[in-house]
Amino acid sequence: MSGIAGIFHLQTAKPVDPDRVRAMTDAMRHRGPHGSGVWTARGIGLGHRRLSVIGVADAAAEPLTDPAGRLSVVCDGELLDQAPLRAELEGAGHALAGTGSAALILAAWQRWGEACLSRLEGSFAFAIHDAERQRLFLARDRMGAKPLHYALLSDGSLAFASELKGLLANRLLRRRPDPRAIEDFLALGHVPDDACLVDGVEKLAAGHCLLVTRGRPVPDARRWWSLDFTHRSERRAAGLQAEAAERLQAAVRRAMQADAPPGALIDGSADTAALVALMAAASPRAVATVAAGSGDSSGAGRAIALVAERFATGHVDAAVPADPMTLPDLLAQVFDEPFADPAAAATLQLAAAAGGSMTLALGVDGLDLLIAAEPRHRDHARLARLRALLPAGWREQAGRIGAGESAPSRLARRFGADGTLRAIAADPATLYAAAVAVTPPAQRASLYDTGMTSALQGHRAEQRYEDAVRAAAAREPLDRVQHADLAIAAPGKVLTRLDRAGMAFGVELRTPMLDPDIVRFTAQLPAGLRSAGMLRKALHRHLPADLPDRAGAVPQPARWPAAALADAVSALVRDPALTATGWFRPAAIAWLADQHRSGAADHAPLLWQLLLLDRSIRNLFGVGA
Fold it and tell me: What chemistry does it catalyse, as a reaction equation (predicted)?
């Protein structure tokens, strides 16, 4: 909903040139077309770009400073359910300095300090400067709906910005690629929140905060919120489903809070139809809908038209363009870092259509992560059940049979059971991390030159998933992998996609499915009920009987012809940005392209990743980075 930026001198309170801060916010003007502001004092500069969703008046303008001039704040995002917090603060004698979320954050900080975070509900990333204590405090919301990047500059100051492009507008930031982030992207399809393609840039993780004091070293960020799967609800299934339906209603109402009418992103699925039903029940005004492909004659197209007719929505069709040739450059411009989520192109198209008529739109993104509906979740749960049936010694024997050459091994291969037998004996965390990877380690390694292998220093992208699964605050195998997904994929992929795509077109995209209250409630469900789709069933309770209960599909951009994609990747070898790093083997990339062009193998996903990586490297560092 906004873009924030700032510069904080770490050693001495030197003046900050306001033009430097303004350059950072101007680089993110798409995040705030409704207003901008820059404030500087000795040792600090804060900047803000405003997209008005709640608090459209000038009284919501930022940066905001308290009357005493001690505290100043900039905030990206919105606090939801503001009334109780506002009443509590005003009842305690706090005169709010404005009408927006920033004024509430400022007053909450004055009253409770860092402990105020537990009282803030919504999606936010904010910075507070304390002139008296010479401190800068950065914080990010529980799930990571709003981004925040920071880095040390060559003059010894610390800079922060909502997006990477805001930091890059500062000429004192050293630009060089981090090979570990390249490994992460090729493995996961996105650069996760504990990595950045620009070496030295940090992303404040979801549910974390950072307190920096002038004259002291910059500490590590501190976790202020975490998800816990260890508690189990004692209620019966019927009661839990009723509670889930009520909580979903409340989450949708919270997500709809805005001064302008919100819309809905729909795809013809029962999930999005139920979302529209919930929104229609909560609003006296008609709900606008946006969809891709609503004009076609497919089942999805008919379902979209039926939803629009049933709820009398003001419908906007966002046709996905047939020509994908422009996508790599657009994705690099919007996401800065390479981003290969298959849903990215469709989300951009929906945001572009929504941005013409609304400032807020809701979707159901993240639901499959929350209810363990991904194929890898089902596979993991199935293997966990098999492991539980076998003593440890038998599991080891199963692995030997699956990998061996004995008669039982040959029989297992004949019936296709050898992979399952090996998986039963494998470490669950390692196996799940491998299932998450979009490009296997061996294939990634085949692309790397010796310089890349050396630069990685043993770094493996899958290690973060393995560590997250093992360290999860969880009791059951499915709990552990979902905990890892909600810590890594939810902020790094799902919420990053919604934030960047929406902000690129001046519209706030929210998903009630990743509302912290819904996430906490779902984590307390027995794993069997969660994986059986209780939350989805509760959502569908709001679906009118005359609407079909059908699954949706992410609209995909037109697939590149094999020759066109191969030629585009072959050009990377001839006009190097990617290979100029010295980290990739040009011959290996050319071989992949030739294999794909001839039809000998389908390397489309990996070639697409290489194309996106090339565009991001050019965009961030220039040719020959």
Answer: L-aspartate + L-glutamine + ATP + H2O = L-asparagine + L-glutamate + AMP + diphosphate + H(+)
- What's the 3-state SS for 549-589? CCCCCCCCCCCCCHHHHHHHHHHHHHCCCCHHHCCECHHHH
Strand pairing of 208-213 and 222-223? antiparallel
> For residues 342 and 144, what is the distance between their CA atoms, to the nearest angstrom?
20
Six-digit token pair at 302?
A: 């008919």
Convert the pLDDT of each residue in 261-294 to its tens digit. 899 999 888 999 999 999 999 988 888 999 876 5
Task: State the number of CA atoms in the 13 A half-sphere of 215 facing the CB.
Answer: 5
Domain layout of the chain by residue ranges: 2-176+186-223, 237-365+489-540, 376-481, 562-621
Q: Are 466 and 484 in contact (CB under 8 A)?
A: no
Q: Is the pLDDT of residue 114 over 80?
A: yes
Residue with tokens 């010295």: 582
- The vertex-5 CA angle with 70 and 624, nearest 5°, equals 150
CATH superfamily of this structure's domain 2-176+186-223: Aminohydrolase, N-terminal nucleophile (Ntn) domain (3.60.20.10)
Q: Return d(Cα 291, Cα 6) in angstroms, integer.
A: 37
**Is 607 within 8 Å of 593 (Cβ atoms)?**
yes
Is residue 137 within 8 Å of 211, Cβ to Cβ?
yes
Counted residue by residue, the chain has a size of: 625
**CATH architecture for residues 237-365+489-540:** 3-Layer(aba) Sandwich (3.40)
Residue 498 in tokens: 């919604």
Judged by average pLDDT, the poorest of 141-150, 510-519, 557-566 is 557-566
User: What are the backbone angles phi and psi of residue 508, rounded to the nearest 5°?
Assistant: -85, 120
Quick check: helix, strand or coil at residue 315?
Answer: strand
Torsion of the alpha carbons at 268, 271, 273 and 276, rounded to the nearest 10? -130
- Point out which residues pair with 40 in neighbouring strands: 45
Structure tokens at 493: 């992929």
